[in-house]
Amino acid sequence: MSRYEKPQSFYDDVKRKFAEERDARLAYRPEGTAQFTSDLDGKLNQYAIDPFAGDVKAREPINDEVEVLFIGGGFSALLTSARLREKGLESIQIVERGGDVGGTWYWNRYPGVACDVVSYDYLPLLDEMDYMPDKQYARGPEIYSHCQAIARKYDLYGIAVFNTTVTSTVWNKDEQLWHLKTDRGDHMRAQFVICANGTLSKPKLSKISGMETFAGHSFHSSRWDYDYTGKHLENLHDKVVGIIGTGASAVQVVPELGKTARELFVFQRTPSSIDIREDGPTDPAWASSLAPGWQAKRREEAIAMSELPLVQRVLAGKVPTAAGQADDDWAKEQAKITMMSREEKIRAQENANIDYMMGIHRRIDSIVKDKATAEALKPWYMFMCKRPCFHNDYLPTFNLPNVHLIDTHGKGVTLITPEGPTFGGVDYKLDLLIYATGFEVQKTGTYNQIIGQGGLDINDKYSSGIRTLFGIHSLGYPNLFVMGGYQASFQFNLTDMLQSQGDHIAECINYVRNNRYRAIEPTEAAEESWVQEVIRYRGKTSWNEDCTPGYYNFEGESNRRQDGNYNGTFRSYVQHMRMARERMEDNFSFTKADRARKSS
Ligand code: NDP
Fold first, then answer.
1. Is 47 near ligand 1, meaning CB less than 6 Å away?
2. Above 70 in pLDDT, residue 1?
3. Taking phi first (over 0 means left), then psi (-120 to 50 degrees means alpha), and beta for anything else, what does residue 103 get?
C-alpha cells in the first residue's frame, strides 16, 4: 500500500497522539512564555556577558547628532545602511551591544554553528559583494566574515559604536529628533532611528529551581566560553557535560560535544524534527554561469514560491525532505487536490504533513540503534509547528557510547542542584552545563525604553494590542522604524525579509529627504487597515492552538490575533509595502522641515 492509500483512521490516530503530546506539555507549563526569563541580572548576569568582547577600552561619552541611527549592528543594520549609502546618505551611526557587526553571527559561535538556509539565498548582497559561498550551506564563521566584509565595503566601521547598549530612546517634538541614552553615558540624537536589534537576540533561560546553585561551569549557547572548552573542545576530554534543550542550536552543538566530551547528557523536553542536509561544494561551472543580478532574481523566485502551500514547496524541492523527494504518486495527489472542497483540502494537507513526519520517524529508526532512544527522539507534532532542523550527524551521535539522551517526556528539567540537573530520581553530576534554551522572540524595538509623541511608552501603546503599519512604522513614533518585529511577514530565510524591510525603510527615508520633510509617520487609517489585515490572516487557522508549545505559538498562550506575524504571503507583504510607497501622501503624514527647532 503506498503512503497515499493509508486509511483515514491512521491519520486520525496520529493526530490524536499529537494532541495528547501537546496537552501534556501545556499541563506541565500553564504559565506559557513566563516559564522563561531574559532578565539576566544578579547571579544570572554571567549568562549575558559578552565572552568575545576582549578588553573594552574606556572612552569619553559621545554627545552627537546624526541623520540615521541604528540600534543593533546585525544584518538588519548592514542591509539597510548599505541601501542608504547607495542613496548617498552619509550621516549614519550604528550602536551595537557586541564588539563587532554581525548580530546573531557575532554571538552564536558555538562549535558546529551553521545556517540551514541555502547560502546563495541566505547570505545577502552576494552580487554587490561579488562573493560566492564555498558550500551549499554556510558555516557560522563564513557568515560572520561576510557581515564584516559588508561593513568594510559600505564603510560602516567608522560609524559603529561597539560594546554599547542603548537604554532609552525619547522623541523630542520641538526638535523633531530622537534622543538616545546608552549604558556608557552617551547622549546621541538622531532624526531617524531604526530598531535593528534582532528577532532572536536576547538569550533566555528556563526558570529552573536551583539553577543559581550549580557549582560547575555553565553558559548559554550564544555565549560560548572557549577559554573553558578549548578552541577545538580539547579541554572536554575529561569532562562530563550536560546540555539543556534540543532546538536548532543544540542540534548543531550536540554532534561536536559527542565527539569530544568524556560523557554527554542531552536533556530533552521535545525533540526537533531532523531532516537530511543536502550539503556540498558550490559548483564552479554554475557559479561562473551566473549573470549580474542573479541573486535578486533568486529572491523574486523565493517571493513567488511563498504563494504555494507547504507540500507544493516540498514538491518543488524548496524544502528538503527525508520523506522522499517529489515522486509521481505525490504529483498525482497534488493534481487531485485542486478539485477538492475546502475541508477536503485541509485534510489532504494535514495527511501529507503527517506522511512527511512519519518519514522523519522512519529515518530515526534507520539510524538510531537503541530502540528506546529512537522512540524518544521522534517528534509528535505537525511539520513546522516547531522550527525544522537539518543535520546529518545529530541522530548518529546518539549511537556513541558516551552520549546519553535524558528524555524528560515533555516535562523538562525542573531542578538543578549544586552538582547538576536532577530528573526521574537520578542526579546528573556535571562539570559543564550548557543552556541551549533559546532567545526572546521578535521583541525588537521594545527592549529599551521607547517614548514617542505625548510621552507614550511603546510598550504601553502595545499593551492593548500591537499596532503598526507593516510591523515597521507605528503612529506616535515618527521617524522610528522597527525591523524583524511582529506584524511583519516571517520567512524561513530571514535575510529576504530583512532586505525587503530595509529597502522599504531606505525608500521612506529617501522620500522624506527628497521632499524636504522632517518626519514621517503612518496615518491612523493606514495603521488600522494593516492591523485588520494581520488579524484577518491570523484568524484563518487553528494552527497555533493545535501545535505543541514552542516559540512559534507563544508557548501555547492564547494571544490577541494582532500580536503576531502577518500570515499572508511574503509576496503580498512586499506588494503591500510597494503599494503604500506609491501613495506616500495617503498612507503617511509628514512634518515640514521648518517645524523643527534646533537642538542644543
Ligand atoms: P529554541 O527556542 O528553538 O530551543 C530551546 C530548547 O530548549 C527547546 O528544545 C526547549 O524545549 C528546550 N528547553 C527549554 N526549557 C527546558 C527545560 N527546562 N528542560 C529541557 N529543555 C528545555 O532555541 P535555539 O537556540 O535552539 O534556536 C532558536 C532559533 O535560532 C531557531 O529556532 C532558529 O530560528 C535559530 N537558529 C538557526 C540555526 C540554523 O540555521 N541552523 C541554528 C541555531 C539557531 P521545548 O521544545 O519543549 O520548548
1. no
2. no
3. left
